[in-house]
Amino acid sequence: MDFAASLNLVAPEIILSVTALVLLLAAAWLGDRSSRVLSYLAIAALAVCAVLVAPAVCGGFTGPDAIAFGGQLKVDAFAAFSKLLIYAAAGAVLIVSPAYFERLGAMRAEYPVLIVLAVVGMSIMVSASDLLALYVGLELNSLAAYVLAAFLRTDGRSAEAGLKYFVLGALASGILLFGMSLTYGFTGTTGFEGIRTAVSGGLSMGALFGLIFVLAGLAFKISAVPFHMWTPDVYEGAPTPVTAFFASAPKVAALALTMRVALDAFGTQAVAWQQIVIFAALASIVFGAFGAIGQSNIKRLLAYSSINNVGFLLIGLAAGTQQGASAMLVYLVIYVAMTVGGFVAVLMMKDADGNPLEAISDLSGLSRTRPVIALCLAAVMFSLAGIPPLFGFWGKFVVFQAAVDAGMVALAAIGIAASVIGAFYYLKIVKIMYFDEPADTVKGTSDWAHWALLIVAALFVSPLGYLLTKCLGSLADKAAAALFFAA
Fold this sequence. Notes:
Elements: H1 3-9, H2 11-30, H3 35-58, E1 67-68, E2 73-74, H4 77-104, H5 110-127, H6 131-149, H7 156-187, H8 192-199, H9 205-222, H10 231-237, H11 240-265, H12 270-293, H13 298-319, H14 322-347, H15 366-369, H16 371-385, H17 392-405, H18 409-435, H19 448-461, H20 469-483
Antiparallel strand pairs: 1-2
Helix pairs in contact: 2-3, 2-5, 3-4, 3-5, 4-5, 4-11, 4-14, 4-20, 5-6, 5-11, 6-7, 6-11, 7-9, 7-10, 9-11, 9-12, 10-11, 10-13, 11-13, 11-14, 12-13, 12-18, 13-14, 13-17, 13-18, 14-16, 14-17, 14-19, 14-20, 16-18, 16-19, 17-18
């Protein structure tokens, strides 16, 4: 494939990179007063990129024509599916961010620039078919994320979150790099196709250690146990819109990248990594469920909820099949909707002066003081718990079904039993909103964008979401098929 064709395949990344540079110049010239306009321009760029990648998903684009820059990137239907989710999550965050930061007097023109640069990194991550491209994309995303976590420069919690994220992220990056060097040393290549060929006859001890270290580095990015330690503190300390961003878009990118590494590069040696993934899945489900029970801060609770949901997603990866990959993608779509809905509801928790409220006790009796917010948040909580007929149940169902069909009945059974534990703290939130005496602290008003996103998310996770199962399943199947094309 010639250079021009490769450039055509990465047109969305080029558009976003140019957008980030233009927005950076505009931010320097116009100052912070332009931040809202720059956010809208960033959203427009994301929308254009979504239009560009959508045909690849619908058409199941894959094969040699999807390979760019000599095998560095694979811009197939799987990558396009993941990019659509990333663009949607980033766009939603950009919509609700200005009101939050302006209320605190902390909106900066560089905020949308950082979001766009992070999205460029995530786009490279989900398309990476070489360890070098993987690392470039991951670090571009991470460097922007470190700054975003510490974006509230006058807030000690935000600065602490940024520092913790940076230090632990550097450690994870070192672990990942060590695994990549071992993989290269024992396979003789950094390309996923070459690695797959090199290990098809069996994994040497060195290559096995390389795989373990690579998966450990990626486990940090997806907040999987035992590399989850940064998640509750960073989620609580970072500004709420940034926390919503961390819990959605980067999570999609990191999970998609993990799927590509495991199923593409090491797909012929699934037995070598399945035990690791199974342990991480079950540990994340159990630890996320128990860790959330005693929380008094809603953002920390959602952090443990994120760890818990990663566990369910990894059950689909543990299956090691195309059906499992498709189930993961379906779950990811529903998870992003639930996450965005949950954090938008948190953003709408404000006192009469517009100050953000994060204590779970502030939700007491919310159904009587702010019934619409309470109803939408209850729908999100029931959906996160996987209680039918909410759409979140379907996400868990397809993942468990994939595990059963792959012969992992015990894994599915343990996952189902552990999901009951998680239901406790989700139902606790609903109980506080509907049965406790009103705290009457949530009095602040929200703009139409918050209401629109909250209602759309609530409708998506409601039983109406089942109307999309056929379409969503078909797109996920096409994306998963592209991931297994070379297998």
